[in-house]
Amino acid sequence: MSLLIEGPHDAFATLLLAHGAGAPMDSDAMNAITEALVRAGFRVARFEFAYMAARRQGKRSPPPKAERLLDEYRQAVAALNCDRALIIGGKSMGGRVASMIADELHDEGTVAGLVCLGYPFHSPTKPQQLRTAHLERLETPALICQGTRDPFGTRAEVATYALSDRIEVLWLEDGDHDLKPRKKLSGFTLSDHLATLAQTTRNWAERMLRP
To answer: Whole-model pTM?
Structure first.
């Protein structure tokens, strides 16, 4: 498994991030998020699930169900072999997969926390079919960074969900599923939101890791 790693090896914490369902680990969105997190002092590692890596060789296939990707995420954690505080997560589907194995890895002391970037609480076309059952009982400290108008879970929708009290949510005003706001309406740029995301993640991680 190939890992794309940026940031200092001696950073106070490492973030392992998986991509979303439709874009690779080096998409514009993932690159911008990674750059902001590295500037905030994190070491950031990225990897691709096998179906996405195969697309680089022209073998295009749809993403499997999230449940079928759990072992691949576990393999990425093992391949990284992190010797410092490790936080797992990812963009959209990648964050969802990480959230499904977070408690087992946290219980064994491998993972300190979870960060989800644009969590897919439901399909935009099926808002009644929630992907939150495991989030109601999550024990791992978690931070979800979500745009207020994300079609996979708006602020108004998420306010009605019974989420674990271990989960904190950073709401980025007018952000879509890629956290991008409409500047003319909100006054914010994507750069503004990514800077807020990175600093909030840093503050959250430092609090979480404090003895």
So the answer is: 0.96
Do residues 93 and 152 lie in contact, with contact meaning Cβ atoms separated by under 8 Å? no
Non-local (6+) Cβ contacts of 113 within 8 A are 87, 88, 106, 140, 141, 142, 143, 204, 205, 208, 209
Encode pLDDT of 50-104 as tens digits.
999 999 999 888 999 999 999 999 999 999 999 999 999 999 999 999 999 999 9
How many angstroms separate the CA atoms of 201 and 43, rounded?
13
Q: How far apart are the two ends of the chain, measured CA to CA in Å?
A: 33
Residue 114 and residue 91 in contact, taking contact as beta carbons nearer than 8 Å: no
Which residue type occupies 43? R
Residue 132 is which amino acid? T
Residues in the chain: 211
* Average pLDDT of the chain to the nearest whole number: 97
CA 80 remoteness from chain centre: 17
Structure tokens at 67: 């449940």
H runs (alpha helix) in the chain? 28-39, 50-55, 70-80, 93-107, 133-136, 155-158, 183-186, 190-209
Pull the structure tokens for residue 60: 């295009």
Among 205, 186, 211, 177, CA closest to 40? 205
**Per-residue model confidence (pLDDT) at position 211:** 78
**DSSP string computed for 7-68:** S-TT-S-EEEEE--SSS-TTSHHHHHHHHHHHHTT-EEEEE--HHHHHHTTT---PPPPGGG
